[in-house]
Amino acid sequence: MRTIILRSTFLAILGLLFLQDTQAQRGRNSRRVYRSYSSSYYHPRTVISFSSPRVMIPFGGMNYYYSSGYYYRPYGSTFRVIAPPIGININILPRGYRQIYAGDVPYYYYGGTYYKQGKKNNSYEVVDAPLGASVPELPEDAKVVVVNNQKYYELNGTYYKEEIKDNSEIWYTVVGKDGKLNTDEPVAEEEEDSGPVVGDIIDKLPNDCRTVVVGGVKYFVSPDGIYYEEVMQQNTVKYKVSGK
């Protein structure tokens, strides 16, 4: 009888230690937040060291670092996540990748990066986002933009549009790339109570504007989402607020 009690006590203590170890591991990995319909998890944009194996990939005269599906470049004493250059190759697709199609052409997708089968066996090449391809989750840093009263998501010049599948899942279709969104209509003119008003003309663009092409027209988009169009006044280049 005493032997049975001691054995039960030992098993209980062992189970308690296992539970504490599991909780401690969860605490150490608390930044990994899984998302619906997503095979990727949140990770910091800048890291000091890598928690998983990394490989260095020389490409275009520069060294890139690859780890767990993401690409990095040195930034001071740290490493910063970057969009990989088109044409760079890896040997193994990241765990949790998705196979998708644009027409009849197969692609592989993970964390905002698209791959095609490389020229060499067992290699996969980073390619531009294929128009018409649908993915189950957006890249982490994609931001909402509104054009012609339609909501899109944009990252690094690639535009996604939200679509609801027959099974009620939300997927995202590539509808524009390289800063170009195909539409025949001009940017919608929406006025707000504060900030620049549509029709205002300024002498100089705000800092950090990026260029996009909508309906064949070039616009400059400020970090706060204001669209500017280049105009000429008295032989001087100025910029008109065309939309928000």
Structure, described:
This protein is mainly β. Helix content is 11%, strand content 42%. The chain contains one helix and 21 strands. The strands form three sheets. Strands 11, 12, 13, 14, 15, 16, 17, 18, 19, 20 and 21 form an eleven-stranded mixed β-sheet that branches. A five-stranded antiparallel β-sheet has the order 1-5-4-3-2, with no helix packed on it. It has a five-stranded antiparallel β-sheet with strand order 6-10-9-8-7, with no helix packed on it. The radius of gyration is 24 Å and the shape is globular.
How are helices and strands ordered from N to C? HEEEEEEEEEEEEEEEEEEEEE
Strand content: 35-45%
User: Main β-sheet: number of strands, strand sense, barrel status?
Assistant: 11 strands, mixed
Number of beta strands? 21
Helix content: 10-25%
Terminal Cα span: 79 Å
Average the pLDDT over all residues and give the rounded result: 77
Oligomer: single chain
Query: How many DSSP H or I helices?
Result: 1
Rg calculated over all Cα atoms = 24 Å
Shape: globular
Poorly predicted spans: 10-43, 184-192
Structural class: mainly beta
How are the SSEs placed, and which strands pair?
Layout: H1 2-28, E1 46-47, E2 55-59, E3 62-67, E4 70-75, E5 78-82, E6 89-90, E7 98-102, E8 105-110, E9 113-117, E10 124-127, E11 134-135, E12 143-147, E13 150-155, E14 158-164, E15 170-177, E16 180-181, E17 201-202, E18 210-214, E19 217-221, E20 227-233, E21 236-243
Parallel strand pairs: 16-18
Antiparallel strand pairs: 1-5, 2-3, 3-4, 4-5, 6-10, 7-8, 8-9, 9-10, 11-15, 12-13, 13-14, 14-15, 15-16, 17-21, 18-19, 19-20, 20-21
